[in-house]
């Protein structure tokens, strides 16, 4: 998974390629849900450290190397975001989805900790309000989209409207009469694809991450919250109740990913049993994508430059 070459060679090489970290391209292709191909979540590992090509690796040494890559990507992401802001051409929309305890909040905290908050907006979407239910399911997300030059993070997103409500169709409200079946959900997938195509055509880069954890790991994390007074605030009885629908959620995630992973808005199935693995992969993908845009700082004309120099001369004489 990690490139074998020495660090110095990789830094120069990845600068040319637009990649900051040392995550092998062959592995990134394995976690990307290829558009037009049906995927099964069972075919994707939740535990990166158990991949075949890492059997001989020392886990702690591997973790140390991955965390170093994460640090490099954080610094590079801060720099890339400044250029994204200055160029004012593209915006970045990052979508994080996953089962309860998958690590969405922690990913935001650790991956984007070095980014200037003025150019980064995080939206954590909860149960829709009465006002939101009186509009189409995409309405509240449209209002939260990042401006040009900004990075926007959706902690849960409009995909909840083809995930949670597909598992719990009784939560659908204020809709015209009609059968809630395959045709209905296919129409919603089509709405989402059209929405994302519109955003992409207008300069929004969309990166979608499904944080893929095992049922056993979720159980461990829920018990950790129950056994730690400092984590009670994270716990909800709803999380326990929803575990009985685990298989249903895996099925609807598969359906959504298969229907909406496109060339302009791909899904990445991120192994998330180890939080440091998920964060390293996501940071690498985001940073690499921004750098691939070949952004430039705004050019200053000779006329404006002459005015700047004159203003500097006047200040020196003041």
Your description of this structure?
This protein is of the alpha/beta class and 318 residues long. It has a single domain (7-317), classed as P-loop containing nucleotide triphosphate hydrolases (Rossmann fold, 3-Layer(aba) Sandwich), CATH 3.40.50. 48% of the residues lie in helices and 11% in strands. It has helices spanning 7-17, 25-31, 59-87, 104-111, 130-133, 139-142, 164-167, 182-201, 215-226, 237-242, 246-260, 275-291, 302-317, and strands at residues 32-33, 91-98, 120-124, 151-155, 204-212, 267-271. The protein has a six-stranded mixed β-sheet, sandwiched between helices. Helix 4 packs across helix 12. Mean pLDDT is 86; it is low at 2-20 and 52-57.
